[in-house]
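User: Working on a comparison across species. This one is 2-hydroxyacid dehydrogenase from Marinigracilibium pacificum. Can you predict its structure so I can line it up against the others?
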Amino acid sequence: MKTAVFSTKSYDRHYFNKFNTSSEHELTFFEAPLNVDTVNLTVGYEAVCVFVNDNLNNEVIVELVKNGVKVIALRCAGFNNVDLESAKVNGVTVVRVPSYSPQAVAEHAVALILTLNRKTHKAYNRIRESNFSLERLTGFDIYGKTVGVIGTGHIGMLFAKIMLGFGCNVIAYDINKSNELVLAGVEYTDLDDLFGRSDIISLHCPLLPQTFHLINEDSINKMKDGVMLINTSRGALIDTSNAITALKSGKLGYLGIDVYEQEEKLFFKDLSEKIIQDDDISRLMTFPNVLITAHQGFFTREALEEISKTTLSNLSDLEKGDKCQNEVKI
Ligand code: NAI
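Assistant: Here's the predicted structure for 2-hydroxyacid dehydrogenase from Marinigracilibium pacificum:
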């Protein structure tokens, strides 16, 4: 299928070319994101392949259809950046990669916890400057702590199992309970109880109207003083300015984020010689107890392979007129 691939990085090109073996699909790689300013690039393409920060609102989808595009192939699991109603009305098929490496994201959430707690990032820099002091590197035992998991789907379930392995008391909230986790020893509870009892809270639910700013002033006030909050899901689950207020007061003891509400203008770009215009991220970057990674939870070899293979297979299914099991329907 003739496909315009947006927001392309070197690793996308590498893995897509590697698995598009018989050149079954005609892929054109654009570094630009897909949005209202770049949609004109899609004239003559049958499909677009997009990532988390491409913006497929109604205006873009209407233009895509005018340009001949019939398929939106997301090379990610989340689809909060696509107006599904508009896609349906305009007859555009949306496919995604529902699960490429849930282990990768669950393991990254644990990496954020361990780094924030044991301050290995600071130790690394100290040692490079021959500073072998342990002052201010004190952490806490993760063993025996209560970990609250919000969303126990593919990623949240694996994360919960890892934390059980650490000897934690794992409690969870999800609109659908997992019997497997209950049998493994996870206790499901309501959100307020989870907020009140957890030493560490990790977010693994999707961004939906119901979960937008799930973490806000009200919910933070229900948490333990000094709680650790981890978000590898979607930035807008957290009200950033409320989180900054709670960090300043000490209510939030640690914040580890792989996703950020306004990440679209920042993440996946080298802005080291630019003036950052986003004051919230600039403020977050000043806290000693905040760790930010730029949406790299998924970023393992295994995940990149799975993303490109599944996306190419989704395009093949649609080209052949077969039913695609990864279609996103509303
Ligand atoms: P999933 O669909 O397997 O699981 C999501 C879970 O959230 C389900 O169990 C669902 O019942 C639950 N849920 C839905 N609405 C809820 C609500 N209102 N309150 C509580 N729970 C609710 O999704 P998966 O694969 O586990 O991914 C989770 C999120 O991780 C995705 O939505 C995506 O935003 C994010 N993600 C982040 C990546 C990264 O690189 N940082 C990579 C891949 C996904």
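For your comparison, note: The longest strand covers residues 252-257.

User: Helpful, thanks.
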